[in-house]
Amino acid sequence: MISLISLITDRPCKRNVALTGELTLSGRILPVGGVKEKVLAAHRAGVKSVVFPAKNEADIKDISEDIKKDIDIIKINELEEIVDLVMN
């Protein structure tokens, strides 16, 4: 969805932000699996911020503090919360 918003508004996405989640037709963000693995992969790739569904907060607590100090983990509930965060 963010890629479509980027295309329509002619605003590129930031290269140092990663996001994941499932989106309902009403714009709610649903939880995902593999949070720890996704954060580790983002960290290895040099990503500075990752965006996850707020419902994954328990999974985020499992990530080591060494990784969390290098990456800003942003928790969201609605699509509107992240548009300005991930776009230039």
Number of strands: 5
Question: What portion of residues is helical?
Answer: 25-40%
Please write the string of helix (H) and strand (E) elements: HEEEHEHHEH
Number of domains: 1
- Low-confidence sequence ranges: none
**Rg for CA atoms:** 13 Å
List keywords for this structure.
88 residues; alpha/beta; Ribosomal Protein S5, domain 2; three-stranded parallel sheet; two-stranded antiparallel ribbon; 5 strands; 19% strand
Give an overview of the whole structure.
This protein has helices at residues 2-9, 35-44, 57-60, 65-68, 83-86; strands at 17-19, 22-23, 29-30, 49-53, 72-76. It is of the alpha/beta class. The protein has a single domain, classed as Ribosomal Protein S5, domain 2 (2-Layer Sandwich). The chain has a three-stranded parallel beta sheet with strand order 1-4-5, with helices on one face. The longest helix is centred in the middle third of the chain and has 10 residues, at 35-44.
Protein topology:
Blueprint (H helix, E strand, L loop, with lengths): L1 H8 L7 E3 L2 E2 L5 E2 L4 H10 L4 E5 L3 H4 L4 H4 L3 E5 L6 H4 L2
Parallel strand pairs: 1-4, 4-5
Antiparallel strand pairs: 2-3
TL;DR?
With 88 residues, this protein is α/β, with parallel strands linked by helices.
